[in-house]
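Query structure, 171 tokens:
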């Protein structure tokens, strides 16, 4: 049995990760876990944009935040629907969830509870988002988990050492 988890800090370029996750998951016995990490209600990196919008008034700002969140959830729903169809064709169980709070702790707990043997993580290529992200903390803990993992940047497999911020090389 091979259980695989994909953690999406970025939902750009998901198809290569879904394909890789399905390839690694053992049909009939293994499970593919999709975890969508929404680090804050509106990602910190968008807060500067919101500050510019803020001068238009609180209503415009709250409407914009609601639109960003709604768009994210709609994209996640589309991704999971397509992933479930692909998984069903390969006789692979698929579990999906969104984590909004205590992302690092919740991801580590899921990895341990679900006996995940291989981890795929999709970050964004945008340095501003990367540097303001809690995902770095998860990345730094990967060697402690003693799990095989692959890092992706918006759906493209990262080269060893490509992902910055003191993160370990991938295995």
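Result returned for the query:
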């Amino acid at each position: 049995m091979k259980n695989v988890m994909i953690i999406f800090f970025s939902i750009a370029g998901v198809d290569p990760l879904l394909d890789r996750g399905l390839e690694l998951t053992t049909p009939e016995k293994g499970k593919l876990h999709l975890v969508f990490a929404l680090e804050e209600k509106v990602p910190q990196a968008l807060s500067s944009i919101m500050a510019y919008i803020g001068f238009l008034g609180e209503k415009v700002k709250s409407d914009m935040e609601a639109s960003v969140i709604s768009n994210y959830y709609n994209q996640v729903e589309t991704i999971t629907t397509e992933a479930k169809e692909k998984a069903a064709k390969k006789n692979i169980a698929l579990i999906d969830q969104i984590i909004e709070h205590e992302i690092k702790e919740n991801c580590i707990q899921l990895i341990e509870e679900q006996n995940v043997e291989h981890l795929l993580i999709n970050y964004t290529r945008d340095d501003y988002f990367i540097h303001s992200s809690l995902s770095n903390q998860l990345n730094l803990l990967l060697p402690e988990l003693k799990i095989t993992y692959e890092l992706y940047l918006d759906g493209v497999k990262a080269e060893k050492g490509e992902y910055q911020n003191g993160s370990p090389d991938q295995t």
